[in-house]
Structures are given as C-alpha cells and as structure tokens.
Design goal:
two-stranded antiparallel ribbon; two-stranded parallel ribbon; 13 helices; mainly alpha
Amino acid sequence: MQLTLRPAIERGRNYAFPAAWAALLATGVVLYKPLPTVDAAPYLSFGVGSAEAREIDQATLFVPEAEPAALTFVRHEWSEPEDVSYRSTREGAHGRFAAPGNAVRRQVQVRAISPRTADELAGFFRDVSYTLTDIRQGEAVPPYKVDRVPADLGSKDGNERKMLFITAILPVILEVNQRVLADREQLMYLRDKLDAAPQMLTAIERIWLDDLADRYDTTPDKLDELVRRVDIVPPSMAIAQGGVESGWGTSFAARNGNALYGQIQSVGRHSVSVPWKPGAGMPQPFTDVGEATDAYVTNLNTHPAYAGFRNERAAMRDRGEDPDGFRLIGSLLRYSERGQAYVQFVRQIMRENDLRDFDRAKLSGF
C-alpha cells in the first residue's frame, strides 16, 4: 500500500490528518529508521507547539521547558519554543515568509534570548563565556538563539559591531543547518533503502518523503534533485551575506523587521533574495532572526535562480568535500544585480573576518 501526503488547501495552513492515517499509526507503524524517540502522538499534532516563556532572573540558569517528542508534524508558522527570555519576552509579530509548508523536524534544543540593547547582548555572551576566539579554537557554540539584533547595535564601533553580530547569528545559522541535516540524514537513508528494495518503504516513510519533497518544491520521485536541495548553507557564507545585506544588523529592515538577508516581499511561491532599493518592493519582515535565517536557507535550496549553487554544492559532496562557502558564493551571481562585483565583495568580507573558521563550528550537544 502506498500513501502520499498532499495538502488539500493553501500552503502554510493547517490541514486535517485523515482518520485512515490515524488508524494506521495506532497500529504502531513507524519509520523504518526513525528520528529519535518516535511515537504515534507527535504525528497527530499539527498545531502550533510553542511553550509559554517564563520570566526569570538574569542570574538564574536557563532551563528549557519540557518538549514534545523529537519528531513532530508542524506548520512553518510554528516558532522554536521560547524556552528562555533574557530580560524581556518577544514583542510584536511581523509578516511570515511563505516558502516551507508543513514539516517533519527534529527538535533542536536551543534557548531563546531577547536582549534589548547591544550592551545586554555583550554582557550575556560574557556571562556564558561565549567568545569567537574559543569557537575558532574548536570549542562548541552555546545553543542560545537571539530573537532579534538589538536596535542600538549601530552605536558600537565597527569591529565590536561585527563581533556582536557574528556571535549572535552563528548559533542561529547552526540551528537551522542542524534541522536541515536531520532531514538530509533520513533522506539519504530512505534513498539507499529505495535503491535496494522500493517495496520495503513503510507508509509512514512514504508520507514523510512526500512531505519533504513538497517543502523543497519538488516531487518524491526526483530523489537526486531532492538530495541536491536538502543540504546546509555554510555559516561563513550566511554570516557574510547577512552582514552585507543588513549592514551588520544596523539597517532599518534588520532593526524593524529582522530582515538580514536582503529578501523582498513577493506574492508568489518564492520570496526574492536581492538587496532592497526603492521601487524593488518592500523588504520581507520576519518574526525573528531565526525565521529570517530559515527563509534564507530555504530560498537558496528551492529558488530556480540558485540551481547552480545547489549543483556546485552537490559536486562538492560527491568529491567527499564539505560545502565551502567561499567557493559557493561564486555561484550566486543572481543574488544581487551587482553580479560578480557582489560576489567579490562578499568574499572580501569572508577573508577580512576569517569567516571560514566557522564552517567547522558545531552547536553544543551535537
């Protein structure tokens, strides 16, 4: 028996879980190689699963709320649990990026912080002993996710501003990449399983594969294309582009809409990643920098303009190499109307700030 999962209504909105699937799940059918701690309950949850943030004292150790099981069907509008608030909770809500639909994701235990000022952000990093020097020397990156860059980041001098921006954004990028890698790992396993014996896929595995293909704007029968799309964006490249597009977090779009990567609003399936200018459309706002980063990675992994980027990254994988941001940025000539001049400028930013050091960085606990 083969089941497929196709949303019956618009992308990005809840849809009902058919009774037949619920009955199937009740029999105990799970992924042949499930992500950790799979049981039936998470498959039956399609709602927003965010725990309410607790107000705690700055000096108190941050302890995350209990989380649901590791594999959960969620809407793209779902945000990572606000396990921790640093001084203040999230304020306001902005428009959503409409790329990914429902997703199967491994929960990544990161703790949200919401510093109101650049000094608060710097003080928090000192309190948890998180420095870029330690990361360059091989230390793990603490799993703290900044909701937004402080509005007064521009008050710091150039070097301190860049340091704070990089320190804040690195864990966010690593967290997004970790979720992508979780999907990629499962996808590669299922691809190998299909090559060996297609009939061995369980119904749940087929549902998962169909949903993944839908999120990445392709079809489950095009496995090679799906493998090209489900992969990371090197942190060096993401940090450099975020710094260039947002003025290291000081642009109006960054301060007021958490827009770090130059995406503009679009009514179609894809948002367009180009530097904003008058007449080009309004910058796409996001709820937080995590959502902005998720949208940026999804855009590179799905937009037709970036097929060359995906092909070059896949070629690196085929050669047994890790994705190299310095080389891969060369395939993004269409990211900016400046073309090759933009690529050269981003590469200069990478060199001047030794950003390639962070391509080896890992989140603590992974």
